[in-house]
Amino acid sequence: MHTNSLYQEVILDHNRKPRNYGKLDCASHHAVGHNPLCGDRLDITLQLEADQINNIAFQGESCAICKASASMMTAAVKGKSRSDAETLIHEFRELAIGKLDINHPHHLGRLTVFSGIRDLPTRVKCAILPWHTLHAALNSIADASTEANNDPVQTVVPGNS
User: Fold this and answer.
1) I need a surface site. Which of 28, 42, 51, 159 has the fewest CB within 10 A?
2) Which residues pair with 45 in a beta bridge?
């Protein structure tokens, strides 16, 4: 199957039937993410116990790409350690902006279906928003945004940390 049609099929499936959609009543971590350009707004709740994501959910108003990304993200990080989730956050961001070589070892699995998003610059922030919001939630930051100054997953330049 052609990569573009697989991408469209996955987006449509996760948009129609999002996984882990809703809100956790007994969440230990929570963040709200905003993408002012598209109007996406996501609310992510999760239960972190002994550094493991035991449960995660999302809800909000967002475009199909954002909702599909959030749906696949929650499925990918559920049951993972905080460290493994942060690795996925970093790799997904690199994938979306075209800096991850998917021919080299990575941990994204089916999430590579989003590799073509790098060719749609106006949609990159839609795909990345759930991941920024997860990063914020894991680090007890209440709000996340895709705007540069508020980007919680900015690339750290070695020597500046």
Assistant:
1) 159
2) 30, 57
